[in-house]
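Sample entry was shown:
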Amino acid sequence: MKFNFKALIENLKNDDNKRAFLNEYEKIVGKITTLQKELWYKKYVRKIRDYIIIPLLSADHTEEYEQKTDWFLLVQLIFSSFSSEAEYIIEETEHDIRIILKIHVKSNSESVTKTFHELWPFQIDRLFDIYINEQMNLQKLMYDHKREKKSIKNKRKECIKHIQLQWAKVHLALLKYPQYVYDYTKITELVTHLEYTKKVLFSKN
């Protein structure tokens, strides 16, 4: 079962506090049909998908829940968010590697870090709502305030560069493990293009 974008929009329409925003959004940005046709998805979030790596999932999640959750889309939304910053943490053992996704959320002067595989199903469902609402608000803001358009575009470019670096960091680590599939040429080209050395990619946090 994939994420139900249509159901989310219906919930917004039925919410007295959000209905006005949705009406304004459709008036300014365009009528909402499918997720794939949304401007913020086509022009931004979609560009991140080539660099998505599904991290470690929780052992507490049922197999049925894991199969029903659109993890690929969720990780895209996490990395495309302006309100949080995500990073892959690599845990290496003698014979294997674990990829863990950390999500850093800043609120005023406080910062909270969440580990992806420790999130409960209800928290994951809530993240879809939060991140999609964020993208819709930003897309509307680009139409409402032309001065914000350039800064939003620049921030999007920064987010894309960030996920590219995270992708390269993980795949450089995977070079040690031939059992994993990787594209060495793509890694080399990406790292060279971004002018980051292996030392920088593996610098301590």
